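Working notes for the structural subgroup meeting. M.R. asked for a predicted model of this chain before we commit to crystallization trials. I am recording the input and output together here so anyone reviewing the notebook later can reproduce the run.

Input as submitted:
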Amino acid sequence: MLLLYLSLFFPFTLNEYWFVTCYILLALFAPYIDLLINQLSSSNLKRLVIILLLLQILPLLLNKIINQLLLAITMYIIGVFIAKNSDSIKKLQMKQVLFAFVFFFLMEILSIFLLAKIGLDFNSLFHFTYFFGAIVIAVPLFILFIKLKPFSNIIINSISKSVFSIYLVTEQFNMRNIIWNKILNINEYEKSPWLPVYGIVVVFCIFCICILFDYLRRLIATGLWKIRFS
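Returned structure, recorded in token form:
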């Protein structure tokens, strides 16, 4: 119980929100990582990226070797590698990048069913998607958006205000258990061929509900602020 209360006051130091924790740590380490990268030649940087990618395969086998901070550092260095090779990236055609994204995404879905066939438990199947699978999907998606022309959209900007709030709600330990185990009982669908479709629908619904609650929260907060200082 004490640990629960401590996690409420210090959520980013007790593994409550690992993604944000890694982001904060990465921001602290980034200047030193840049110093290392700037000392590497193009070929050595490429070798470093390959080594880091290979390390991300180990969680599939042992599930405890690679931590999330190393994953964040890997993605950061891959981003630097893409930036340093921007001329080559620009030569890629949109259809090539889109094909790579769709291909790796389908391979990821296929890997879930294949790993289920050999007897891995449900949590281990999706633990794999946090590492190597997530990287090979994220890289072409990142390149795809780099190649798109810059644009601004009021709907996207409005929704983006609530994304962090959605993350805080859905990744809170108790809420995560309530949503996925008690309300949705996702484990019942782990061997269903409709699992990807079910997952997309569920995520979309959770997203919409959380956006609505966050919008109401902002309205209430704005109203209270005006009353307080009127």
